[in-house]
Batch of 4 targets.
Target 1
Amino acid sequence: MKKFFSMLGIVVLVCMVAIPGYANDKVFKIGGISSLQTGYGRSMVSGAGLAVEEINAAGGINGIMLSIEWQDGMLSPAIGRTGVQKLLHASNVDALIGDHSSATIIATDDLVREYGLLQLGMGSAVQVTELGNPWIARVREPDDLTARVLVNYINDILGYDKIGVFYVSDQFGYGGRDVTLQTLEAKGITPASVQSHNPNDKDFSAQLLAFKNAGVQAIIAYSAPVEVGVFLRQAKQLIPEVKIFQSSVGATQTSMEVAGDAANGTYAVVTYTEDNPDQKVQDFIAAHKKRWKDIPYDFFDPLAYDAIYMLAEAIRLAGTTDRTAVRDAFFTIKGFKGVTGLEYNVMPDGETVNELILVEIVNGKHRVVQRVKG
């Protein structure tokens, strides 16, 4: 991935350059917030950047061109808040994309409300929806959808009821844990064991022993890519008979590379996989390779790409760059086919993703098991 990572500075520079030949009122300014030094952030930059370039090369949206400027949130709600303030007040952007960190979206809730512009958030925590902010939409699956897909497959298809939950002690992990426990409770299932770990931990023997003693048949895991990969390696040694299911993190290249052969036979839910034969997916991969000399790094690449195209559709529908009109138009979008291979339907609460793909990991590839609507 060295080629891809080396493009970051170029991407940010290209996206911040003014577009020559167009008056200011013909440019719709997008502000991006993400942790630019991580794979997720870099993936968002390349996906969004590709979409902006394609739209502008095609003449924009009825002559309205797009620009995008990024601020580094550095996985810190406080730093992310400062970045959003710069985008709003110094750069005077017309819409926001990001962050992939729900904590940053929550920390900037009041700024978006006060300023009055659409934010396409990419954090998965249900707390984002619970904000009830009419200016926020989410272009990613919410944690409760992930939990329903996983729990239903484990219980309804496999017939397992001794289910363990493994999570990292941060916003993402807490959110995944809570919605999974709620989903289990709704089906009348008491979790066999619930185990946590601290960020950056590398020894999970205590948690695995607890799962073993509880007789779990399946584990649902919510953690970061490296930690998930290490967890799978250790689980393969200590509880090889237990089936492990993961959020979309477990399907990333980083997680699979860290896990190695231990990833084989594990499952994850995703919005996107490069192994999906859908023509839009494969065309996107080809365009990404041509522009960035590499395949999309992870699911944030196509999600960011789709978010920009959905925003462009909202501008087209609104027929203006007025922020309120663009927001209102965005919330009317239905049946929008993205390069994830899924359809987006914007709901009144701002959710746009209502279906997921369950995959099994086999030799570094994703075998599609089922496509499930929430």
Note: The longest helix spans residues 39-57.
Target 2
Amino acid sequence: MKIYFAPLEGITGYIFRNAYEEIYGSVDKYFAPFISPAEKCPITPREKKDITSENNKGINLVPQILTCKSEFFIEASKELQAMGYKEVNLNLGCPSGTVCAKGKGAGFLPETLALQRFLDDIYSYAESEDLKISIKTRLGYYDPDEFYDLVDIFNSVPISELIIHPRIRADFYKGVPRKEYFAYALQHCKCPLVYNGNVYTAQDYDELVSQFDRSLDPVMLGRGLISDPSLADKLKGNTSETDFTKLKKLHDTVYHEYQKIMSPDINVLYKMRELWTYWQTLFGDNSRDIKKLLKAKKYAEYEAIVYGGLLTEH
């Protein structure tokens, strides 16, 4: 089966991707955190650094674009094609308030007429330039029934893959995904589909397969794969347990690579804290140490907790 790694802003940049690919290597396609093109600046130097081929050797990476203006999308696509990319992804799922207020991400979904014009423009360009455009979407902004009209719009353009996170914007990441709408997509969408949402364990995946009565291949993992980096291996049948030796190597690699490019201590520790908010689910008996770790401000304090117990007890 094919497994896609969802983009998580601030987490799945090139440092984490390279470390994960080297240590686990069970992901078939990575999606980069979104690029937000602006007038006269399709891609910032910081965004370009994250997706340049030099920083992503051996990784099947798809850049993601967040915009509601077709001319911005096309200009960013031109730069990405010049960098060697043959596929880009449109973000129609980000629920962030600041993003949606600008009509981007999930905030673009209720503007169906504008969205149709936007898609007509970018796919007309894509067809002329032999560029694949996939889309990552939510069901709607206000109501999941918005999805019925969205499916008609999506069916009008040649989407290479439609990645569906079956929640509306107001759900953010809470509650149970509205799987019945993905079932509708399976029956009515013309393009290849990818499921994304709340797959944290192999059992979660098996329950989805049972519910839809079909294999979900590919499947996109995000928070579940961060929370348990062994999840892709588990879904592919390579292991049935979380590999703490690999987890320690992943931690150490990411930690030391951040130290090479960031300072002072606290900036690196902010990045590591974000990862530990996910990893803490694997250390249920060490909640006290996790709380201390999340407050650490110096390397020595942090390392005393991590190497003095958490990552040496398994």
Note: The chain has 14 helices and nine strands.
Target 3
Amino acid sequence: MHVAMISPIAWRTPPHHYGPWESVVSLLTEGLVERGIEVTLFATEDSVSNAHLVGVCPKGYEEDKELIPKVWECLHISEVFERGDEFDIIHNHFDFLPLTYTKMTKTPVLTTIHGFSSPKILPVYKKYNKKCYYVSISEADRNPDLDYIATIHHGIDLTQFAFREQIGDYLLFFGRIHNDKGAKEAIEISLKYGMRLIMAGIIQDEMYYEHEIKPYLSANNIEYIGIVGPKQRDKILGNAYALLHPINFSEPFGLSVVEAMACGTPVIAFNKGSMPEVVSDKKTGFLVESIEESVNVLDDIKGISRLNCRKWVEEKFSLDRMVDDYINVYERISV
């Protein structure tokens, strides 16, 4: 079996720091190669992989603002489909745009839908429904108008996350600085509970950061440390008292939630989207409805077994399980 893997090109695959879709593509690609499956990875030229790498775009357009995204997206996707008949399966992680190229090849196309940025993109998915195969990354993120071949939760490389039994002394917000992710709410929870808060992640909304986050830094025992790489990520996640995840949208998955639990750190998450699938309520953290409820359960974090958090991830969100699930789908498609 020869799989063409289409990664996004906003960031390198794997990303230097931020880039959740690219991160998943990298993990899956390397896992497939280890199983002896031939993979051609279409990603940025500076990507790193044990698969056969094909790059058109020199680097991620979020890392080089001289690159016009639409120009390089078109060149990137067309490179795959002009060679489409060389492969047994084309696995698309690039959202909806590659679907519009599928008539260029007879090779079946599988699309992992990493979330819907807007209902306005649904017409493309609807047009190619039943002509392509769709995978959802959580049951919560399924759209009733689409047909899916499977739901496959993301898996993580557990060797990158050290388990820490010792409970930490700070709260952590780890994600995009954006209203969707509830960065402001994390600050409110921290202030009401009276525990130090560390915030890490890319600033996706500059105005939001300037008005809702920056005024609270330093003087209020709240620290923003910017974007962190893998080594610092492991340390920051593992040494926290709890991860705060007060999201304001129906999140399709939530990699940082799984990564925190892999380190043994419990999670307090607003009960939206995929969170009931990702967090085991009262066993690996708490699913809550409000800032007040978040504050009220923070004392109970001490009663959450950090080892149970790690075991939950080992059982549900391992890289091996994710690779197995995708191989099973590939085999169903290629029969």
Note: Residues 319-334 form the longest helix (16 residues).
Target 4
Amino acid sequence: MNGLHRRTLLAAALAAPGIARAQEAAWPARPVTLVTGYPAGALTDTATRAAAERIARELGQPVVVENRTGAAAAIAAAHVVRARPDGYTLLMGAASLAIAPALQPQLVPQDPLRELAPIAHFYDTPFILVLHPDVPAADFAGFLDLARRTPGGLTFGSSGIGAVNHLMIEMIHRASGAPFVHVPYRGAAPALVDLTAGRLPAFLATVSDAAPLLADRRARAIAVTARERIALMPDLPAMQETLPGVQASFWQALFAPAGTPQPIIARLAAAMRAATADPAFRAQWEARGLVMGQGGPEELRALLTADLATWRALIREAGIRVE
């Protein structure tokens, strides 16, 4: 290698950090893509689009939502994991990130704590335990007692094998000893059709799915899976009041590919916090049963770490498998 070539390489190496810092300072210089694993029109999608609009206002660049559905949102997550870590491709990840590594370890990301960079917690949505009006249980304790007295166990529907509400059924069973017959559906909609028709006694529905059924008394609510009672239904007891430690929610949160520069992560976290702290934005989504998050990267990392441990242990102990 001649001297000129060596000097050229050295100059390029010395200049690289400065170029990288300049690019970070100029970010975002073009639109940002926010990938979601859920279909257009679903609450998960409409909330993501609302967040994207609010983040765009903070960044001064459009944030374009891209739907990449399939494999329990793993297709979207894998796309972002493999994207350049430059802040222009982001993931609106969900609780499935904490479930898939134990349930479907062949999917990407296999280690979301290593393959993704947490940015900010967007929201939680707890589940409401809804019953057909004819089910003879006045409260959660009565529901558990009814399950114990039902030969073979009480039928309990979920949105599908490995969904958060399926894992909650297992959590309730393990904490109470009450037996259940799990019936997995392809999503909440068909399960709620069967519940209102009297073919399914019980289901864990999100607040937004439960609300219209409760309003016209096609279903009854007896408990919520949140850590504590929720503002939207203050008279509805939390399951923890009967079974301490039994709580979980579906959540969504903002992630970037691992290796995304920290200044970009910080700007995105601040933009998300501005959205979730805005009173009008909070009121709009809390009216639909969402509980706005406030945490940044460290809080989101702690949430994901705890959920990974909880669901890994439960899936292993219950022997849950995707057929």
Note: The chain is about 45% helix and 20% strand.
